[in-house]
Amino acid sequence: MGADQVLDGDGRASDRRGMILFLAARPVTSPRPVRPAPRRARLRGRFRFGFRPLAPYRRIFAVPGTRAFTAANLLARLPMGMLSVSAVLMIAGSRGSYALAGAVTATGLAATALAGPWTARMIDRHGQSRIAVPATALAVLGSLSLLLCVHYGAPDWTLVASYAATATTPNTGGMSRARWAHLFRDDPAARHTANSFEQAADELCFLLGPVLATLLCTALAPEAGTAVAAALLLTGVLLFAAQRRTEPPVAPAPATGRPRSPLRLPGLPPLLATFLATGAVFGSLEVVTIAFADAQGIRTAAGGLLALQAAGSCAAGLLYGLLRPAGHAGRRFLGCTAAMAALMLLPLLAAATGSWAALAAALLLAGMATAPTMVTGMGIVQALTPPGQRHEGLTLAVTALLGGIAAGSASGGWAVDHLGATGAAYGVPASAAALAAAVALLTARRGPSRPPVPVS
């Protein structure tokens, strides 16, 4: 066999020289240059990359039915920021007494603290669609009764009784959070994103609600704000209750009889105390900021200053939802409350300079700590309460916040009267934030007496 022949695997000879000549005869060509992608394609790639961080929100709203119940709930939640402002403007404009208006709304707040958990307990036992609609109808009748009593000059006590009837308004935000908790019972990351969105929605509704109420009451008629808020509430709840496929099922009654109150669940009372202090931050910050703006001669800008605080919280809530929660929820809650206590020092320092521009920036930054605190806290409430008591647990958290707001408003007013509308009055929200962090720290050191109930 020649030197240019080899044996292949089957023992047959193959001519290596022929292969070499064949390859040598092929024309030599340079490799095809790689052309850059068209500009439109490059922009498209950047566009997609820029919106990739929103994937967690696209993921939760890809579940069938979530967009429908969210839109309906936002419609029902917007009046939460309208009703009290509309009542104050309507009563003060017709009766000429802010004291009467404050007494009426304070009575309604106290009635809500009593009736709210009871309404939530009925929703836990019988379902959202069966209880939320009649409870909302009763609340709307109370609002319409208040409107008629004010318009026709009824006695003052009728105003108090009418507004107290609105206390049956269901916790619309809590019902939405309960649906997310049921849909993503096995996905903590998705629940975190959903809770972050809900907190941002709360901030948005309480930002737009007072503005819309003021516009309606001043531009149309004193009764317009209450009438529109009642119509939006009833329409939103009816649309929300119609979304049955995402409604969480009613948990079976325990075999041992009536379940114990969520207030007796280990770990929940200290958490509610933290919410109480956090509500005091909100209430006192509002009163002190209005007084500061009035003292600076820019009272009309007080709403804008408070809007910056809500905008900061809303943006922080949305950004917080993009993060994947890591570590123990109690430690994250402690970190959030500590950050809130630190950032609440900024308005105190800014107001001491007497500059409203510095205060505006400080309020924007201070608001960025409140949403993560509320998101983490509400997540812990959902983990601590069993599925059959989730609405009641969330409503108790909201009740604690409302109680804190009332106490904070009173404390902020006292500080303004005794310390003046200066930077010193901002010590009240700073102290309330420090108290919230201290309660969270003491709770974290004690540690839970039992592991949290898994969200199911």
TrEMBL record:
Highest taxon listed in the record's lineage: Bacteria
Keyword DNA repair in annotation:
no
SUPFAM superfamilies membership: MFS general substrate transporter
Which InterPro entries does this one have?
MFS, MFS_trans_sf
Q: Keywords assigned by UniProt?
A: Membrane, Transmembrane, Transmembrane helix
Q: List membrane-spanning regions.
A: 74-92, 98-119, 131-154, 224-242, 268-292, 298-321, 333-350, 356-381, 393-412, 424-444
Name of the protein in its database record: MFS transporter
